[in-house]
Amino acid sequence: MCGIVAALTASGNVVPDVISGLKTLEYRGYDSAGISVMTDSGLQVRRKMGKIANLEAELLSNGLPNSVQAVAHTRWATHGVPADRNAHPHTDDTGEVVLVHNGIIENYAELRTWLRGHGHHFQSETDTEVFVNLIAYHLRKLGDLHAAVRAALEQAHGAYGIVCMAATHPGILVVARMDSPLVVGVSENGTYAASDMPALLHLTRDFVILENGESAVLTASGCQLYDAKGSAIERPTQRCDWTPEQAEKGGYPHFMLKEIEEQPDVLARTAFDRFHDSNGDVDFEPEFGLDDAELRYFSRLRFMAMGTSLHSAILGQQMLAKLARLPGETLNASEFLYSPELEEGDALTVIISQSGETADSLRAMREVQRRGGRVLGICNVMGSTLAREADHLILTHCGPEVGVASTKAFFGQLTALYLLAIRIGRARRVLAPSQGRELLNDLRALRPKLDVLFGKESREAVRVAADYLAGVKSCLFLGRGMNFPIALEGALKLKEISYIHAEGYPAGEMKHGPIALIDENFPVIAIATPGRTYDKMISNMEEVRARKGKVIAVAVNGDSKLAAQADFVLPVPEVPELLSPLVNIIPLQQLSYEVALRLGCDIDQPRNLAKSVTVE
Ligand code: M6R
């Protein structure tokens, strides 16, 4: 999806800073990029279809002057095809006002007609060009850029994160947001704005996060924030604990590989500081905001999310049922709006999202709140919309996840859900302190066991299976119980980065239809680690092989009984069944990565996908 970076300093040249910030946002997926700078003789704009490298080439051949003030953008087409003319920044028809915009102005067609009636001309098909002309219209009447932006926003309906500058107002940037993230970064060297914090981590770690409806005027020395009514307000900065290095590849060929390998550290970061060993309990930070009495009040849970986070949600429901004896349901967040409006009563809704900006999940959160329910957000991004608007919060502390295919965030979500299950189990007194301690120790003991998955033998097993899987067109992932969501997640990983068709199924469902697909060209990936489902998984694998289907099995290291039923084995260490999903997903992530590598796919930015899906 689109990305915004803007910078303003008192002296020097900010162009390299904004280009470097823009590159940090490449992972979001985009089809064109552009930049505008303020010069003594007015605004200059450069825009190019394709990668940021194309824009850089354009800047080399068609030089851009140094400037203390710049706005830049990566565009993911909504209105109008990917093309130079549709790329941002857009200017009004006099070239005096420039705008970068994330989101969609829904009434842009009416506004365009209205503006044409007032003599404005348009060169692109975009809603943003309409919006910047609207700002220019008001600027001519009001003479003040912030007032003009606010007047334009009053006429526009839809979602926006914007940064605007005008030749008549050097030294000022005006920013605003509604349902599309926008943060302001401050440092002694300048003031910055971006759609995502990682884009500014090389410049600052201190941020002011805008709420919906708010706007701000940025100068080189700071920012003045305004509420939705236009009154000046104050808000302290928040310090982001992410580092610029976390948002870089650090020598890895792909972010996805780096993020897969970071998972043992994610376990430590998400969990270990929260252990309360003496009580066998978990201490969440103050933003969790639920004490024992409140946790005992809830008698049912509802989990909602999208994509990979939805797979965490299914597992969360299972963990909470097992450890806290709380019944729950899991819903695809995009479907919640259509569910009958029943009493929320004593239900707690858990919304899980890596980005905290997924439109479907946010919509579901607000609908729960509108119906009178309470929401606990589980999220990786401090200051995101979910983190700010949920009634209660657990941050997963995974560090920035850049690869479009979610890996370490999933791992962090499962870890946080396991902790939540212990916390609620202890509060409801269905877990004794000794049981809580045992569960915490199991999690602590997991860390060294994960190292095996990154050893030579495991990597080699994954590569051999990938050599085979890269040649197939379609496959099935099967799991049961706690490993059914892992089958779903394994299939999602493979399809999104390698474009091989894959479906995840509960293994018990295979005989009810999917088995018809199995022949010598249609493999099955079976998750068959020890536990209640082990024997049944072996039977399912036999059924596949009886039909000449090849089997790739995720199995415990040294399990010869299972190895006899598999063509390829992805070995994993033995862990308690409740923690097996955290282990079993890793070789499946590695398998998808290796397959996509063999097929020459764009691993970190798969086609048609965006890291954060901010439209419904
Ligand atoms: O940021 P979120 O966790 O809310 O994102 C939800 C999905 O869009 C996301 O998990 C998506 O499915 C990923 N591409 C999965 O790898």
State the gist of this model.
With 616 residues, the chain is an alpha/beta fold. The protein is built from 19 helices and 27 strands. The protein is globular and about 80 Å long.
Short key terms for the protein model shown above:
616 residues; alpha/beta; Glutamine Phosphoribosylpyrophosphate, subunit 1, domain 1; Rossmann fold; 3 domains; 8-stranded antiparallel β-sheet; 7-stranded antiparallel β-sheet; 19 helices; 27 strands; 36% helix; 22% strand; binds 5-amino-5-deoxy-1-O-phosphono-D-mannitol
Summed over residues and divided by their number, the pLDDT gives a mean of 94
Largest sheet: 8 strands, antiparallel
Helix content: 25-40%
Spatial shape:
globular
Distance between the termini: 13 Å
Radius of gyration: 26 Å
The total of beta strands comes to 27
> Order of strands in the sheet with the most strands?
3-2-4-1-10-9-11-15
Second-tier CATH architecture of the largest domain: 4-Layer Sandwich
Class computed from helices, strands and strand pairing: alpha/beta
Whole-number count of domains: 3
Number of helices: 19
**CATH fold topology of the largest domain:** Glutamine Phosphoribosylpyrophosphate, subunit 1, domain 1
Low-confidence stretches: none
Instruction: Give the distinct bound molecules.
Output: 5-amino-5-deoxy-1-O-phosphono-D-mannitol
What amount of the residues lies in strands? 15-25%
**What is the CATH class of the largest domain?**
Alpha Beta
> CATH-wise, what's the superfamily of the largest domain?
Aminohydrolase, N-terminal nucleophile (Ntn) domain
